[in-house]
Design brief:
By secondary structure, this protein is mainly alpha-helical. About 70% of the residues lie in helices and about 0% in strands. The protein has helices at about 15-45, 50-75, 80-110.
Length: about 130
């Protein structure tokens, strides 16, 4: 369930995608909380609203970065449907933070990578 979490080219099962979602949700919350704690004294907005703003901005940036990293590693950047799902992760993150945005990211991890062509062996070159 929690194997190969940083291998974005790996095709996950439903259970593995749920594990991916949970781990990245927890890590994302911890990172956003640290960013909020660090930015509070710098901006003077150390309240709940300031932390919520930092968390939302982090989610809006992190979800498409993860989505497009997965699409790049799987060779799916030319597939318009998957690019739209990656863009939906931005809308999901804007509406519901990491809770909603990472659902689209986890979905993309279940898709099969494009098969790369077999390398062609070339004979010796003549000088």
């Amino acid at each position: 369930m929690f194997r190969r979490l940083t291998d974005f080219s790996y095709q996950r099962t439903l259970v593995q995608a749920i594990g991916f979602y949970l781990v990245y949700l927890i890590v994302g919350i911890v990172v956003a909380a640290m960013l909020g704690a660090l930015s509070g004294p710098l901006t003077g907005n150390a309240g709940f609203e300031g932390g919520l703003l930092i968390g939302t901005i982090f989610a809006i940036v992190a979800c498409p970065v993860l989505s497009f990293a997965i699409l790049y590693k799987k060779g799916l950047l030319r597939h318009i449907g998957f690019v739209l799902v990656a863009l939906l992760s931005v809308a999901g993150a804007a509406a519901g933070g990491l809770l909603l945005g990472l659902i689209f990211v986890a979905f993309l991890t279940t898709r099969r990578a494009v098969q790369s062509p077999e390398p062609v062996e070339v004979g010796p070159t003549f000088a």
